[in-house]
């Protein structure tokens, strides 16, 4: 079975089919990157529309109802359809390579996870075209959400349910991959920090998403089947939704933040040419943040009325997270200390990240002080806080990672000059947009405000904020230009363009589909660096060349996702007309049929034969 | 790979014997579970004091679950360290969730 | 690039100072100039935490700037390999322990004020107001007085006033930044908070829990008056008459129209027995604003009645029968003006309290 | 380990479910998944506990629940847990026939449980007009117990499809992990039920 023959010239149809059926983590990574990037642009356009509406008081660029759809979809899109998938893109592209694995533990599930995410994301956005998208905020607090007319919130519920299932699969997949598939010698305490953060983030996914799943089911039953979980008239209680949402929602922000920390740990260490300072403490801090992340969710609910005891407990627990996060900040600073710091685009993002995230974390601690949060809560101060941590932490990391791993993923390197231009526009625009929002909040501007009255002292701040947002837009356009230009030029680079330290740089860029011809023998932290310091070019193999076992491609994940997508419409529209139930049957039939096919058809993969590998080596 | 595919028949018989022992234990466990269930039901039917019954039946339920996990699902065997860790991670989150929803929802 | 970073820093420090010194926002709206007990408590914690944060930020930035300037790779050093340090126990202990101490500095006052603000010790002996939030307006019922009013809550200065808050539909939140922090108003659990204002005046209140289309327009006011004025006002409210007959000819016609079209939802007297369906219009002529957001004037009132959906999208009045499918009034503009004349006769006290007078003047609404 | 070894039923190691990398992955992954499932059910239990008094003037748990049925259901499910232990016992002894028999018994007991549950729901709906829409308590009850019931259905379908698919070819290293994790799933369903009968039914009639 010699699929090794270079597949340079493939017809478009064949390539498409290849991607629709692929179970290769590297291709799935590319699909996550494209889809997540697309949704980032969508969410960014929504943000620009938001800012444009707020450019002056009593503006009527968009209507109140449409504005509410914009913020809801902006938040939902950015968190679930942009940030998370982009993180999954890098986890897929990098984690198996960093631990010296040939693939993830469950390649089939990996592909299923992607397609579920994509169809869930599409489902969420279908609302735009069928009379209005979700409009109850990304947090969808009941009873506003359960009583919101139209189908927007139904699309939110089903879209998130479908893509959430995909995310959960992704989480389990990475956990098992990291537990079981590490190369010989790759002990836990030799794993690169990005892998560690991916591991902890996956564990958070595993424990946090089920709460959202249940919350969404309850909301679906309320909206579509007349249940009364959140309906005060039926004895229900809307606070339950808030708890379920935040039991998921708070760990979610660390699901985003931890891998971002991982990205920076790699970049900072690589470009200051030093091993990570306090590696053990970094690992420990990562785990501790993950653990504490489960005990603080009610800090989003200080004004709900839980009473001073609960508020105090959650306030203190929340503040505690500043300690492990501080450990990280200082360890990064001391990694830089005494290093030989090279400032190129990825490093520039990392250097921009440190002060920005510190600011965001500090305002986090400020809002964690319950009695102060009585003022901050639901104002632009909070908007400023979370954009500082999410954009300044997560988006910066994604952009840094994009420039850092682009060569590994595509074998060509993004233009450094354009990269720096992108950075400066985005960075300055970012601070212009969000720094001033702290003051807007304290000056009496609540969030989720379609408009604000004249003569309230809020005009200038909002104008500045809007200008900043458009500078970020300009930065993003430079990024797009960079990507197009680099792809057109397509100058190839070698396996290790950054003189880096971890395993993924020990193999060609882009890596062959089986990753490692021979599994590498890992002899320390930063394995490639270890070999380099001992004068070797690459890794020492841990096994002789032998047959490589590969999983088969499959079209079923796509089919399952389409099935659930179809069923989703059935669930939504049966509330108007029961004949839509047929769609549920058709959709679930397709999905379950595909699952059944999967379980009765043996899938034991195939082997790349030793001889082919050797032949390839000679070519 | 700890499990050799080809085993000597001696080894196989030894393992088989061991499993038989274990199976006996599991039947005993099962009997205990039934007994616990009976006690729980009986206590409720006897209409004892609420404040006494509720903690007791909860504890009995917890023990039963322990039996399921450690005997029926073999969590006591080696190679289950990580499964146990992750499972208890889930139980921890589960516990917080229930606590919150019971304590912090009505006032 | 070095001076870039420097510039940004000076710029941000400068803008910070500018903000603090000159523009703390609009008086009686901003949380930065507290004029009530709750706002003051929160403000203290805010200040303490900001001071701690400034310390933290200075430390982080000092190290950061030093490292970035000092250890940048210079020309000719490309091949130099720095020492690969593993870590440093002492340092690690230092940056674990110091943040813990700093956090304690914030945590202690936080907990103290959190308990303080939840204190219900004096509830029995204080004014109690039952607050009801609805899309997109507020109703206030004085529990001990059997009086209710809408949109504008009158309280005496320096008195603790307890608010018992419940929502009629979705969750809202009650926020008057200059007087006190916010509290959710939820449909199933009654929340209690107290407010206490230090100065007379009219304070801006906002809904801060996302509640639908006109969430951003669900403004209300707290009118802080002297004890004397408060007593007079309450008296006046008690004497508002459901059988009131209009004085001027046009208002009499207006009353007729009002009785045909509006009375099923709006009451014109402040009695607590009136069902809470739509804002209570007793004392209308002394309002600070129309619909909570428009300057008080006849034009604004007429505009509102003619097309309420234009001003507050999605508000409950759009179900009124006098409106056509487009939400436009089927009553002619002349008639609506008569209704306005009628409403502008309704008052509990002969003239507005001082706070309201001042407010109208400041906002430039003499007419 | 090649596909040849995987599908060769002659030699079975004593932990066939974990003998291949795929098996190990499934084994670990499934345990992790159960960790997530406990949060899922905790969310449902928490919701139920928050709402179990919210009868909105309708039927309450005291008025509804009878313990006889629940006792029978409990016995059925507990027993089925033991029978699936027997099935795994025989799997490890490489005795495919006996394994299938015990699995068959497990499925039968599970079906019995399911019938009683359906009968119970039906009873409440038609005798007491107690539905998901009656009150928040009704919503919470049907959702929690229904989710468990849904798991039972899924477990049964899983067992049955495994049994049908492998009936002819016997045990091998490819399907042993599948049988094993299906039985883990079944035990987990039992774990949940133990809490349901305690928290929902027993505490509900107290
Ligand atoms: C990536 C996402 C991310 C991250 C990392 C964080 C990090 C933190 N967040 Fe944030 N948060 C959000 C995303 C995030 N948050 C979002 C999206 C919301 C709003 C959701 C919504 O309502 O829509 C939110 C809202 C939010 C609230 C609710 C506010 C409200 O609605 O009223 C609170 C309250 O406690 C909070 C606290 C914190 C804290 C204490 C941290 C800490 O982890 C920060 C720790 C970091 C540091 C402190 C800096 C570095 C440390 C040092 C240099 C050491 C020394 C420091 C000290 C001694 C202070 N966040
Ligand atoms: C990952 C999360 C994330 C990210 C990255 C962002 C990014 C941005 N966000 Fe926001 N935001 C949230 C998560 C995020 N946000 C959440 C959760 C909420 C709360 C929602 C709620 O209340 O429910 C929120 C709310 C929110 C508000 C408050 C709305 C309100 O309360 O009324 C505002 C207002 O300024 C805002 C602005 C921005 C801006 C200007 C950006 C910028 O950084 C965006 C920068 C990106 C661009 C500018 C892209 C530009 C695109 C192009 C140039 C397109 C080119 C197109 C083609 C070639 C086709 N966001
Ligand atoms: Cu949080």
UniProtKB/TrEMBL annotation, chain A:
CDD domains assigned to the protein according to its UniProt record, in alphabetical order: Ubiquinol_Oxidase_I
Principal cellular location given in the protein's record: membrane
Q: In the Enzyme Commission scheme, what number(s) does this protein have?
A: 7.1.1.9
Q: Where in the cell is it found?
A: Cell membrane; Membrane
- Keywords from the named record: Cell membrane, Copper, Electron transport, Heme, Iron, Membrane, Metal-binding, Respiratory chain, Translocase, Transmembrane, Transmembrane helix, Transport
Q: Which reaction does it catalyse?
A: 4 Fe(II)-[cytochrome c] + O2 + 8 H(+)(in) = 4 Fe(III)-[cytochrome c] + 2 H2O + 4 H(+)(out)
Asked whether the UniProt record includes Cell wall biogenesis/degradation among its keywords, one would answer no
Tell me the membrane topology, using the record's own terms. Multi-pass membrane protein
Q: Which residues form a coiled coil?
A: none
Domain named Cytochrome oxidase subunit I profile is located at: 11-523
What stretches pass through the bilayer?
29-50, 70-95, 107-129, 155-181, 193-220, 240-264, 276-297, 309-334, 346-370, 382-406, 418-440, 460-484, 555-573, 579-597
UniProt pathway: Energy metabolism; oxidative phosphorylation
Q: Which InterPro entries does this chain map to?
A: Cyt_c_oxase-like_su1_dom, Cyt_c_oxase-like_su1_sf, Cyt_C_Oxase_1, Cyt_c_Oxase_su1_BS, Cyt_c_oxidase_su1_bac
Origin, by domain of life? Bacteria
> What is the purpose of this protein?
Cytochrome c oxidase is the component of the respiratory chain that catalyzes the reduction of oxygen to water. Subunits 1-3 form the functional core of the enzyme complex. CO I is the catalytic subunit of the enzyme. Electrons originating in cytochrome c are transferred via the copper A center of subunit 2 and heme A of subunit 1 to the bimetallic center formed by heme A3 and copper B.
- To which protein family does this belong? Belongs to the heme-copper respiratory oxidase family.
Tell me the protein's name: Cytochrome c oxidase subunit 1
Query: Source taxonomy lineage?
Result: Bacteria, Bacillati, Bacillota, Bacilli, Bacillales
From TrEMBL, chain B:
Mind telling me which Pfam families this protein's record contains?
A: COX4_pro
Task: Read off the InterPro entries from this record.
Answer: Cyt_c_oxidase_su4_bacillaceae, Cyt_c_oxidase_su4_prok, Cytochrome_c_oxidase_bac_sub4
This protein's record includes keyword Transmembrane:
yes
Question: Which key words tag this protein in UniProt?
Answer: Cell membrane, Membrane, Transmembrane, Transmembrane helix
Instruction: From the record, give the transmembrane residue ranges.
Output: 27-46, 52-73, 85-106
Question: Which gene is transcribed and translated to give this protein?
Answer: ctaF
Family the UniProt entry places it in: Belongs to the cytochrome c oxidase bacterial subunit 4 family.
Q: Where is this region: Disordered?
A: 1-20
- The record's principal subcellular location, in a coarse class, is membrane
Kindly list the places in or outside the cell where this protein is found, as annotated in its UniProt entry: Cell membrane
This chain belongs to which protein, by name? Cytochrome c oxidase subunit IVB
Q: How does it sit in the membrane?
A: Multi-pass membrane protein
Automatic annotation (TrEMBL), chain C:
Give every Cytochrome c domain span.
249-347
Ranges for domain Cytochrome oxidase subunit II transmembrane region profile come to: 23-121
Q: Which domain of life is it from?
A: Bacteria
A Pfam family found in this protein is COX2
> Which PROSITE patterns does this chain map to?
COX2 (PS00078), COX2_CUA (PS50857), COX2_TM (PS50999), CYTC (PS51007), PROKAR_LIPOPROTEIN (PS51257)
Q: Where are the transmembrane segments?
A: 41-69, 90-112
Note whether rRNA processing occurs among the keywords: no
Query: Which keywords has UniProt assigned to this entry?
Result: Copper, Electron transport, Heme, Iron, Membrane, Metal-binding, Respiratory chain, Translocase, Transmembrane, Transmembrane helix, Transport
Cofactor annotation: Cu cation
Domain named Cytochrome oxidase subunit II copper A binding is located at 124-236
The top EC class, named as a word, is translocase
Catalyzed reactions:
4 Fe(II)-[cytochrome c] + O2 + 8 H(+)(in) = 4 Fe(III)-[cytochrome c] + 2 H2O + 4 H(+)(out)
This entry's comment on the bound cofactor is: Binds a copper A center.
So what EC number does this one have? 7.1.1.9
User: What is its subcellular localisation?
Assistant: Cell membrane; Membrane
Q: How does it sit in the membrane?
A: Multi-pass membrane protein
Entries under NCBIfam families matching the protein: CoxB
- Protein purpose: Subunits I and II form the functional core of the enzyme complex. Electrons originating in cytochrome c are transferred via heme a and Cu(A) to the binuclear center formed by heme a3 and Cu(B).
Question: Could you say which protein family the record assigns here?
Answer: Belongs to the cytochrome c oxidase subunit 2 family.
UniProt protein name: Cytochrome c oxidase subunit 2
Q: What is the lineage of its organism?
A: Bacteria, Bacillati, Bacillota, Bacilli, Bacillales
* Gene that specifies this protein: coxB
TrEMBL record, chain D:
Annotated compartments: Cell membrane
For membrane topology, the record states: Multi-pass membrane protein
Highest taxon above the source species: Bacteria
Q: Where does the Heme-copper oxidase subunit III family profile domain start and stop, copy by copy?
A: 28-205
Would I find Transmembrane among this entry's keywords? yes
Keywords in alphabetical order: Cell membrane, Membrane, Transmembrane, Transmembrane helix
Which family is annotated? Belongs to the cytochrome c oxidase subunit 3 family.
Q: What main location does UniProt list?
A: membrane
Q: InterPro entries attached here?
A: Cyt_c/ubiquinol_Oxase_su3, Cyt_c_oxidase-like_su3, Cyt_c_oxidase_su3-like_sf, Cyt_c_oxidase_su3_a-hlx, Ubiquinol_oxase_su3_dom
Membrane-spanning segments: 28-49, 69-89, 101-119, 139-164, 184-204
Q: What is this protein called?
A: Cytochrome (Ubi)quinol oxidase subunit III
């Amino acid at each position: 079975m010699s699929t090794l023959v270079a597949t340079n010239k493939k017809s478009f149809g064949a390539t498409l089919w290849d991607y629709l059926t692929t179970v290769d983590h590297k291709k799935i990574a590319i699909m996550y990157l494209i889809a997540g990037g697309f949704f980032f642009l969508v969410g960014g356009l929504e943000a620009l529309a938001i800012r444009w509406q707020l450019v002056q008081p009593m503006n009527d660029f968009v209507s109140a109802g449409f504005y509410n759809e914009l913020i809801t979809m902006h938040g939902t899109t950015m968190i679930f359809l942009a940030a998370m998938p982009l993180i999954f893109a890098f986890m897929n592209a990098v984690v198996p390579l960093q631990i010296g694995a040939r693939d993830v533990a469950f390649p089939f599930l990996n592909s299923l996870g992607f397609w579920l995410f994509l169809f869930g994301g599409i489902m969420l956005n279908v609302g735009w075209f069928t009379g209005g998208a979700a409009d109850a905020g990304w947090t969808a607090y009941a009873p506003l959400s359960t009583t919101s007319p139209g189908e927007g919130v139904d699309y939110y519920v089903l879209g998130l349910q479908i893509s959430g299932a995909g995310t959960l699969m992704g989480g389990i997949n990475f956990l098992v991959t990291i537990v079981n598939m590490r190369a010989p010698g790759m002990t836990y305490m030799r794993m690169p920090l990005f892998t560690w953060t991916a591991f902890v983030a996956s564990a958070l996914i595993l424990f946090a998403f089920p709460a959202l799943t249940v919350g969404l089911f309850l909301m679906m039953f309320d909206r579509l089947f007349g249940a009364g979980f959140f309906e005060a008239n039926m004895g229900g209680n809307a606070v339950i939704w808030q708890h379920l949402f935040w039991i998921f929602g708070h760990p979610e922000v660390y699901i985003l933040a931890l891998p971002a920390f991982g990205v920076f740990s790699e970049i900072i260490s690589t470009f200051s040419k030093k091993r990570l300072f306090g590696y053990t403490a970094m690992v420990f801090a990562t785990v501790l943040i993950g653990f504490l992340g489960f005990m603080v969710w009610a800090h989003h609910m200080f004004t709900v009325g839980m009473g001073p005891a609960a508020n105090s407990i959650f306030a203190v627990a929340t503040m505690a997270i500043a300690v492990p996060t501080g450990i990280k900040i200082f360890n990064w600073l001391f990694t830089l200390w005494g290093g030989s710091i090279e400032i190129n685009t990825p490093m520039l993002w990392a250097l921009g990240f440190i002060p920005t995230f510190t600011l965001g974390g500090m305002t986090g601690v400020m809002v964690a002080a319950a009695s102060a949060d009585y003022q901050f809560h639901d104002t632009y101060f909070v908007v400023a806080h979370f954009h500082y941590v999410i954009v300044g932490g997560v988006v910066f990391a994604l952009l840094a990672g994009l420039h850092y791993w682009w060569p590994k993923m595509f074998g060509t390197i993004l233009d450094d000059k354009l990269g720096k231009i992108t950075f400066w526009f985005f960075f300055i625009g970012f601070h212009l947009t969000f720094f001033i929002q702290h003051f807007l909040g304290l000056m009496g501007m609540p969030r989720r405000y379609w408009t604000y009255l004249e003569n309230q002292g809020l005009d200038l701040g909002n104008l500045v904020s809007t200008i900043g947002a458009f500078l970020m837009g300009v930065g993003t356009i430079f990024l797009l230009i960079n990507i197009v230009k680099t792809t057109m030029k397509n100058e190839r680079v070698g396996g290790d363009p950054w003189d880096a330290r971890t395993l993924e740089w020990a193999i060609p860029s882009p890596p062959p589909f089986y990753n490692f011809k021979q599994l590498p023998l890992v002899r320390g932290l930063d394995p490639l660096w270890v070999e380099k310091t001992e004068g070797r070019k690459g890794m020492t193999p841990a096994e002789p060349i032998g047959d490589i076992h590969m999983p088969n491609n499959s079209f079923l994940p796509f089919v399952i996702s389409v099935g659930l997508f179809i069923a989703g419409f059935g669930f939504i529209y049966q509330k108007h007309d029961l004949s839509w139930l047929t769609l549920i049957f058709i959709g679930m039939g397709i999905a379950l049929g595909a699952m059944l096919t999967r379980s009765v058809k043996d899938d034991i993969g195939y082997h790349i034969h030793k001889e082919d590998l050797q032949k390839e080596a000679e070519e | 790979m700890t499990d050799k595919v080809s085993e000597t028949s001696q080894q196989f018989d030894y393992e088989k014997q061991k499993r038989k022992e274990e199976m006996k234990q599991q039947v005993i466990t099962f009997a205990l579970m039934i007994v616990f269930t009976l006690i729980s039901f009986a206590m409720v039917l006897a209409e004892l004091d609420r404040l006494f019954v509720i903690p007791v039946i909860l504890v009995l339920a917890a023990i039963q679950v322990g039996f399921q996990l450690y005997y029926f699902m073999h969590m006591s065997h080696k190679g289950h360290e990580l499964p146990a860790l992750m499972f208890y991670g889930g139980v921890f989150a589960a516990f917080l969730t229930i606590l919150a929803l019971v304590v912090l929802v009505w006032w | 690039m070095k001076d870039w970073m420097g510039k940004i820093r000076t710029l941000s420090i400068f803008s910070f100072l500018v903000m603090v010194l000159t523009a703390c926002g609009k008086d009686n709206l901003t949380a930065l100039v507290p004029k009530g007990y709750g706002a003051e408590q929160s403000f203290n914690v805010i200040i303490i935490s900001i001071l701690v944060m400034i310390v933290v930020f200075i430390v982080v930035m000092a190290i950061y700037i030093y490292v970035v300037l000092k250890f940048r790779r210079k020309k000719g050093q490309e091949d130099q390999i720095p020492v690969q340090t593993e870590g440093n126990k002492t340092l690690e202990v230092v940056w674990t322990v110091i943040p813990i101490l700093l956090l304690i500095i914030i945590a202690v006052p936080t907990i103290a004020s959190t308990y303080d603000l939840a204190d219900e010790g004096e509830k029995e002996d204080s004014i109690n107001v039952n607050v009801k939030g609805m899309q997109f307006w507020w109703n206030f019922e004085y529990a001990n007085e059997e009086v209710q009013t809408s949109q504008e809550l009158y309280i005496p200065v320096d008195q603790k006033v307890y608010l018992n808050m419940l929502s009629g539909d979705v969750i809202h939140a009650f926020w008057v930044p200059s007087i006190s922090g916010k509290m959710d108003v939820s449909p199933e659990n009654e929340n209690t908070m107290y407010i206490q204002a230090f100065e007379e005046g009219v304070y801006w209140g906002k809904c801060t829990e996302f509640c639908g289309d006109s969430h951003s327009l669900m403004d209300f006011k707290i009118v802080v008056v002297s004890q004397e004025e408060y007593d007079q006002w309450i008296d006046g409210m008690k004497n508002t008459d459901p059988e009131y007959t209009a004085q001027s000819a046009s208002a009499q016609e207006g009353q007729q129209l009002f009785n045909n079209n509006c009375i099923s939802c709006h009451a014109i007297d402040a009695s607590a027995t009136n069902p809470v369906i739509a804002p209570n219009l007793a004392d209308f002529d002394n309002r600070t604003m129309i619909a909570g957001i428009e300057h008080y004037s006849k034009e604004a009132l007429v505009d509102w009645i003619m097309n309420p959906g234009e001003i507050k999208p999605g508000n409950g009045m759009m179900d009124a029968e006098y409106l056509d499918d487009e939400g436009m009034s089927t009553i002619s503009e002349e008639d609506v003006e008569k209704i306005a004349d009628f409403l502008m006769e309704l008052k509990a006290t002969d003239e507005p309290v001082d706070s309201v007078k001042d407010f109208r003047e400041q906002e430039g609404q003499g007419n | 380990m090649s596909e040849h070894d995987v599908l060769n039923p002659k030699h079975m190691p004593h932990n066939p479910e974990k003998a291949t990398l795929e098996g190990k992955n499934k084994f670990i992954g499934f345990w992790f998944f159960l960790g997530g499932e406990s949060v899922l059910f905790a969310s449902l239990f928490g919701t139920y506990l928050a709402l179990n008094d919210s009868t909105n003037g309708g039927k309450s748990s005291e008025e509804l629940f009878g313990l006889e049925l629940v006792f029978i259901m409990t016995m059925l499910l507990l027993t089925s847990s033991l029978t699936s232990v027997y099935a795994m016992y025989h799997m490890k002894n490489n005795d495919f026939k006996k394994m299938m028999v015990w699995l068959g018994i497990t499925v039968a007991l599970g079906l019995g449980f399911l019938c009683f549950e359906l009968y119970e729901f039906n009873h409440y709906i038609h005798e007491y007009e107690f539905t998901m829409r009656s009150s928040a308590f009704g919503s919470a009850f049907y959702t929690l117990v229904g989710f468990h019931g849904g798991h039972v259905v899924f477990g049964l379908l899983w067992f049955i499809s495994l049994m049908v698919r492998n009936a002819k070819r016997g045990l091998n290293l490819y399907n042993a992990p599948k049988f094993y994790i299906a039985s883990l799933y079944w035990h987990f369903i039992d774990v949940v039920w133990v809490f349901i009968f305690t928290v929902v039914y027993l505490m509900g009639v107290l």
